[in-house]
Every structure is written in C-alpha cells, then in structure tokens.
Predict the 3D structure of the following.
Amino acid sequence: MDIKILVIADNYNFAEAGEAIRGLSDVLSNYGLGFKEAVIMPASQRESIQKIMSYMSAGDSFVIVCGGIGENTCIAAEIAAAALKKEIARSKDAADLMTLVYESNKKQFGPSMEKACYFPEKSFIIPNQNSGISGFYLTEPVFLAAMPLEPGNALNTVNMFKNHVLGKMLGKLGINYFVRVRKYKLFGLKEKEFDNLFEKLKNAVEYNLSREFSYGEFTVSAAVKGISTQKLNDNIKTVDDKALGIFKDYLYGYDDDELHEVCSYLLRENGIKIAVAESVTGGYISNKLTDLPGASAYFLYGGVVYSNIAKTGILGVDRAVIEKDGAVSEKCAMEMAEKVKEKAGADIGLSVTGFAGPPAELDNYPVGTVFIALSSDKVKEARKYLFSGSRLDVKVWTAKMALFWVYRLIGGSGGARP
C-alpha cells in the first residue's frame, strides 16, 4: 500500500509544511517505510486540493493530511468527505476536548469555533492536548488521517500522528512491532576514542545505530524495537544500561536533553550556586545557564569582562598578571574564576578568556586559543584549548566545553577535566 502526504499550507507557510513532511518521513523510516509522494498546496487553492485528495484516496492507499483544520475552518474534513462521498457530522468527542482545553487555558469557546469539530461520518478523533483542535482518521474505504498544522508547531502534528495514528497504520500493514529512536548525548570524547566506544556499543546491541557530531558533541541514535510498548520500554532500558556502561561519564543526557539544561538542573537540584566571568564568549554561557525557569536559585552572577580594564577594575584581576602573562593566559583565567567566585559568594566560579579572531599583531596565541578555568572547593584548575572556525564557532565550542567542566564537577566523574 502506498503512503501519500498532502499538506495544506495556511498563509503559504511552505517552510513549516516541509518540516511536517520531514518529521513524518523520519517516523516512517524507523519501520522501513517511506511515502510515495508528498504535495504541498496553499489553503486558498481549494479546487486543486480537492482534485489531489480525490487522486490520493483512489485505490489502496494511506493518505496523511496535515493542515486545513483550525478554529474557523474545516477544509480538510470537507474535502475528505467529498472525495470519499461521506456526510459531515459533528464530533462530540472533539467538541468536548476543545471546550476542556480552552477552559483550562482560560480561552473563550464560541459556537463559530465548532467548525473544527465537524468530520466525515464514522471518523475517529486524533486528540490534540496542545491546542484542543483535534484531527480525525478513517479506516474505510481508504485509510485517511488528517491533523491540524498549527503555526510554529509542526512537531505537534508529527507527534499526533506518531501517538494516535501510526499504530493503526502499522496494524493494517501487518507490522507487529514498535520502534522508538533513543538518543544518547555525549561530550568530551576525541574522535578516535568515540569510534572505539561506538563500535563496542554496535557489538553489544542488536539495533541499528547512527551518529552525528556538532561542536564537540556526539549524538548516538538507536532504533530500538519491541513487540509491545512494555517490551519496547524494557529494550530501551537494556540499551540505556549498555550505553552508560560503555560511554560512562561522557554520556550526559538522552533524547532532547541539552548540555546547558542538564547543568542547570544539576546545579538547582544539588543546591549549588555558580558565578561566571566571560571574556571571549561575551555572555553566551550566562545566557545558556539562565534558560530554565528558576535560574536565580543557582545562578548568582554573570559578568562580561571583555576588556583588560574590566578584568582588573571590575573583577579585580591583578594587573601584573595581565602585563606579564596576557589577558589570554592560564593565570588570568584562573584569577578570573577565583575572583568571580569570591565576589559573588558562589560555590563555583567559572571563567573563559581567549581569541575568537581575527588575528592581531599583539596576540600571544593563535586565533581559537581559549583558556577555561574553574574554582571550587574541589577543584582549582585552568586549561588551554585550541578551537577552529568562525568567531561564533569559537564561542559555541568554548561554551560547551566550559559547561561540560561544570557537568563533570557536579554530575559526572567529580573532576573538572574532561
């Protein structure tokens, strides 16, 4: 059976339509499936949409429709009903869910919004806890599923399909197992070290593995299978244990975890307070550490001491250190970390200083040279790195490495050095 995708793009938002198609494709590929064709049409082209849906729903096909369902519109439902020669009927379940979600969000639900609750007769609803605007699916005469595509939220459309439609589609295809892609987030490994550990994991599990790399971070993806959701969860736990045993302290998170979020969580949960002095990164680290709500519980101070005057006059770095060793040096970085910890009354002082480029005559190190320093009761250490790329690349590399130091201090091996 062919899988066909039709995206009805409101306001000519073709970029979001493309995101939805990519997301659906990723989900299908976990089962060795792919779509035969995908078409994006602006919502204003109703007649053309009608022809495409009639064509797609002819024969033995699975049709996935994204968009055309909203507060005041039911284009997808009306066109699907016409293509399949069905009547439109009000779905009480969809209306009840929409009312409940609107009330919980303190939004007024009016009769005109019920257009979103009319589907072809004998449809089943695809619940949408995000906005309350449900989708629908039919199993006869063809398998057709339609979900809203809300502005800026193509991921929600994909999740609605994955959570409420995919299982039915797989059953129709005779596929009797579930797949979940489990991601393992790693940092601090050199490429050859990672290659060796990756091979160990490949030999230890029976599932397909893939890898990605960005700014010193490796992401390992495992397509884990199970004949039931319980068995799938058990198998994921098994792979988790093997991955942790192989990657150890370099494994900082799973799935959508981000390094700065993990650090922030560990700081908050352990009651540890941090202060940051930044030169080369210009506030990038402080910005990342304050992304989570409640950051004031663990983040005491973030200062950008970009110039030598700021380092000496504001932070209190000894002028003699800068005059002798330079602002980009191990000693300067260490003093920055100690001074910011002392001034803020923090448990951890973190500092970064370096050259992001372009090169200057008086630089004592090449562009990309960065010193990271950490001061705490456990560790007082500074270390030199050489990163490559643009100014932004150097900033991102530096921030990630500095955050990994924090992670290793409070959540990993207990030592700062990666």
Remarks:
- Residues 209 and 222 are 5 Å apart (CA to CA).
- The radius of gyration is 27 Å.
